[in-house]
Amino acid sequence: MGRKGLKAPVRCAVVGYGAAHIFGRAHGRWIDATPDLEWAAVCDRDPERLDAAKEEFPQLETYESVTDMLSRADIDLISIVTPHFTHAPISIECMKAGRHVICDKAMCLSVAEADAMIDAAEKNDVMLAIFHARRHDGNFRAIKEAVHSGQIGDVFHIELTAGGYGRPRDWWYSKKALGGGAFYYWGPHAIDWVLDLVRERIKGVTGFYHKRVWHDIDQEDQVRAIMLFENGCVADVSHSHIAAIGKPLWRILGTKGAILDTGSGGNKGYQEQIAGPSGGSFQMVQIGDDGRKSVDVPYKESDWLTYYMEIADHLLRDGPVPVTGEDGRRTIAVFEAAEKSSKTGKTEAVAYE
Ligand SMILES: NC(=O)c1ccc[n+]([C@@H]2O[C@H](COP(=O)([O-])OP(=O)(O)OC[C@H]3O[C@@H](n4cnc5c(N)ncnc54)[C@H](O)[C@@H]3O)[C@@H](O)[C@H]2O)c1
Question: Which terminal residue of the chain, N or C, has fewer Cβ atoms less than 10 Å from its own Cβ?
């Protein structure tokens, strides 16, 4: 079967071969490691980045504009790895041209843009998938297994914290209109992890945004979203550029135990490797009839390739889309509610479809 009669190998392009994380190359490597997918083209408006791609992967066709690539290249799947403000327009242009799209995080800058992207996928009968592949980080996989198998009882409290003290660098990310703000860098991973862990509807979000130190740039210095779920669970996610003392990455409390994870090594080899070895462990405390027991639970392997394997399964064998446009939209809706709440001082509802 497959979508629109697609046959293997599905020819793929990557848009955005940026120098900051060389994440276009990471996508290309995952594509090439996936049976049934073939990395055929790369597009970047910066010719130097195309030269860099061509030097390492001489077989690639190169294009300086998406419009040009869409008119000339024989490709079916396009991975978009460009700055956030370009995600919606480039995705929509590709989908209107009948191409399937994987859009890296953050999906876009607003719920309105997310709606337009989902609409374009439906109208043009193409796949829209959002690249929340850090669901496959080894620490998150191990935490998810422990939580979903009930090892700490019912989870009622989650803290997820990252950042430190330092001025964000000058580039598109630190310009709010282009990057989206301080939540849009690491935040999409964090909110997606929480939503993958707590499969409940969000009742409301309370946000606290601080602008205290780095006044020469317009993104926030610290952002925090406290999410209340319908089952009573509360998740408190924050990212900071002004936190002079940090906290462990994860602290999760359940009715029969707790998890504490520093996160170090949970994504060992990310961006460089197809999959990463287990890089550490987290502490799990369980309260039982015989008292309190503390164990170190090893992280799992980081099986990042699974994301692209599932994309191939969807395109060729009608499997489910690993992370849908609607999933990505929910993360953006949480950011929007948190920012609104930081201004109104009230708990705000999350836009559901
Ligand atoms: N999923 C992850 O873990 C992860 C990791 C790193 C980066 N990213 C995401 O990758 C995306 C890019 O980030 P980056 O760090 O590589 O940024 P970057 O600035 O290094 O690279 C962006 C590239 O896109 C190109 N570009 C911009 N507009 C374009 C257009 N209209 N057409 C073609 N090319 C265009 C630029 O020339 C540049 O080479 C962002 O969405 C970022 O969040 C995701």
Answer: N
